[in-house]
Amino acid sequence: MIKRTLFIIIATLALVSFFLPDARAHNVSRNDAKFVQANQGRAMGPFMYLGAKHMVTGYDHLLFLVGVIFFLYRLKDVVQYVSLFTIGHSVTLLVGVLGGVHANSYIIDAIIGLSVVYKAFDNIDGFKRFLGIQPNTKWAVLIFGLFHGFGLATKLQEFALSQNGLVANIVSFNVGVEIGQVLALTGVLIALSYWRTRDGFLRHAFVTNTALMTGGFILTGYQLAGYLLTE
Amino acid sequence: MIQEKDIPQIAAPTRKAIAKATVIAAVVALILLFAAVLPAEYGFDPLRTGAALGLTELARSTATKPESAISATNGQPQPNATYTPQARIYKVDSEDLLLTPGHGVEFKYHMQKGAVMVYSWKASGKLMFEFHGEPDQKPNPDYYDSYELDDKVGKAESYGSFTAPSTGIHGWFWENKGDKNVEIHLTAAGFFDSAKMFAGGDPEDMPLEDAK
Q: pTM for the whole thing?
């Protein structure tokens, strides 16, 4: 029990320190912000790059995807689930920015943290054991994808975007997000596939998902505290 | 890819194990949040662990950059010279700005190196901000000097005096991260050449008045 708790603390610290090298990694950085603000008209390349950069350095999206593909062994399944996530976040990214829907970014990011908790709890059979049913995993990925998209939208809305070429720029940002997602997923899949060939995988799967859940709780608490302390 | 037949069967965890894991995850998260994350990110330190580990410094060091404004000797601002004559009368300026949720605005004065201003700004809610300057001659297009930064908790007011360290534009970037509109009132007096506002589109020249 104590050994396991210690392991979780160490695994979580490793996870958090890996994903939190810069507290502002999650935001589009200041110089990028200047570019976005000064930009007039179409700039597909830069917006695509910013989308990809946001995804690769956005640890909350990555933690959720790790949870989603943790037990997906077939490439077909990975593609199916990741497509559902993509549809979900693309819809709200476009609707959010084009429709001018403003959500509080702390609340959205807290829900994104909870999506990590949800998926990790699901991975250790929490719902099956406690509710007696397995909530539809595809719907869950789609619905949480919608929240992740709102998170992406609030990041872009932090800047006064020029109306000039707005649609082209948002679509470019979205395409960049998908490119970043494929890049990050490739890395995660390679690591997971290798790990699965080792004996330790199943023995540590339970503990790893517990650590993932801890990471989700920390993200949620971090954002909720931000909401409460900065209002 | 691994073939389907290779997919191992996992013994389902017991309810007790799942409950224990969830509680451990939540407790570990709470400990790490209150002991490390909140002190480092927001300077919120109820357990005093942040002070013990030096983490609150992290929140504070990005919140202010004292070395550029305050001398190391006694913590008091030190003027570069007691008396600096100027060729022209100084300017006064008063601005009311409205920031809608999720938006930022930048307001800057063009000043010669060594020119002085006094300023006060007060807002109806907390804003993330950075008081910074861009020299006319800069080593690269993205270069800027940061004088005071708070992008963690934010402030609703700030008052001070300022001596331009370089000829260029000096002023504030404010950002409203909350979900309500915030009004800012800025008053400043000093040896300004001109003023510019950046709110999205092209920078806008703002009129300035001579002191009466």
A: 0.62
